[in-house]
Amino acid sequence: MDSTRFNLQATIARSKRAGIYLHIPYCRQLCYYCDFHFSLSPQDKDELITAMTREIALRKDYLNRQATDVRTIYFGGGTPSVLTLADIRRILDEIMSVFSVSTDAEITLEANPDDLGDDLSPAYLFGLRDLGINRLSIGVQSFHDHELKAMNRLHDAREAVRSVEEVLRCGFENVTLDLIYGLPNSTLESWSHSLETALALSPPHLSCYHLTFEEKTAFANFRKKGKLHEVSDAISWAQYQRLCDRMGEAGYEHYEISNFARKGWQSRHNHAYWIGIPYLGIGPAAHSFDGESRQWNIANNRKYREAISRGTVFYEKEILSDKDRFHDYLLTRLRTAKGIDLRYLKNNFPTFYPDFYREFARYLDTDLLEGKGNRYRLTEKGMFQSDVIIGDLFVDSG
Ligand code: SF4
After folding, report:
1. Among 64, 1, 5, 16, which Cα is nearest to 326's?
2. Which domain CATH number covers 49?
3. How far is the CA of 71 from the centre of ligand 1 (A)?
4. Mutate which of 22, 26, 27 to test ligand 1's pocket (most atoms within 8 Å of Cβ)?
């Protein structure tokens, strides 16, 4: 066993914690920017949930049970708020019967405003609370009707506001909203309006993503055909700066490139991804990580169900090389406000460190990196350019 692996395992054993991610692969409508795995046909939902509960039981040893306490559970997708309370109960009951789940576990459900803003939603929301869901992530994206329409979202701005108010009124405290900036035809003013509307609702956490044109999405296709134009770099940059300034003024910590939280309200589940805590991913297209390997389930609902019921392989797996782990460390830690520890890199990845440091040193006197001693992190400007910087720091050797 090499020293890197030994250290990593020691860290994981010490941490004794893990997360579970559940991929709910259904949506009511296709959003034009999205490349996640989902289906618009929920007819097989019951069978799929049966397959997911079987997968939970099949993978009972994945998290190395004697060393592991499940601290976070995350219903993502897709659109988990298409699930009924009975669906969610089936999944949670299976998890509780198989794993040791902390009594104070963070249990998040992603929800769309169109599932939360109508007259039936209080019953649904109180039901979620009774089931133990204690964090809601609401996919607002924008507070402009024309932007929501351009993205093909199902809700409008009024419904978005109402859904957040309803969630807060029903007693959820741990609430986060997703917003997207850098949208086609957006301006600094239009972005400021969405941001200020979100801040006026006062959620303890906000996730704000810059739009990316993922391959094979409708937006990428529109752009190729010249039907849609990206915002200029200058507008993107101004929107990002406004975001950082306003969130700071409003008392939120910029703790990860796209994430802002009031003190004590960081996402525990996502934070665990960024610091290398193992997680088990259940459902079609879900990814898992155990410290030594990554695996990902078939991204096809029917094939996933059939493989689980036949007992055949339903995932692909890759054992992580030292270089993969080195790159993972850079990729995840440099996204966060804690940044990287040079001593850790030097001690655990001596083969790659000299090449890495040569590139790293080029950034030391720039306004993209800050730190001292062994701890360094990207500045806010650096975070905006993180893809390029992290790419530069990756090594070819080894
Ligand atoms: S953005 Fe969310 S709701 Fe829209 S298609 Fe993608 S997964 Fe579904």
Report:
1. 5
2. 3.80.30.20
3. 26
4. 27
Of 229, 253, 274, the residue that ends a domain is 274
What is the C-alpha separation between 87 and 52, in angstroms, rounded?
11
Do 11 and 86 fall within a single domain? yes
395 in the same domain as 266: no
198 falls within a domain = yes
pLDDT of residue 67: 59
**Ligand 1 atom closest to Cα of 112?**
3
Q: Whole domain around residue 383: which residue ranges?
A: 339-398
Residue where a domain stops, chosen among 255, 274, 293? 274
Ligand 1 centre distance from Cα of residue 151 (Å): 10
Provide the pLDDT for residue 4: 37
Model confidence pLDDT, tens digit, residues 352-397: 999 999 999 999 999 999 998 999 999 999 999 999 999 999 998 6
Looking at the fold, whether 263 and 354 belong to one and the same domain comes out as: no
- Per-residue model confidence (pLDDT) at position 118: 76
pTM: 0.94
Say how many Å lie between the CA of residue 61 and the centre of ligand 1: 31
pLDDT of amino acid 17:
86
Which residue ranges have their beta carbon within 6 Å of ligand 1? 27, 30-31, 34, 36, 38, 77-79, 112, 139
The 10 Å CB-count burial string (b at 16+, else e) for 258-276 is bbbbbeebbbbbbbbbbeb
Q: What is the mean pLDDT of residues 322-351?
A: 96
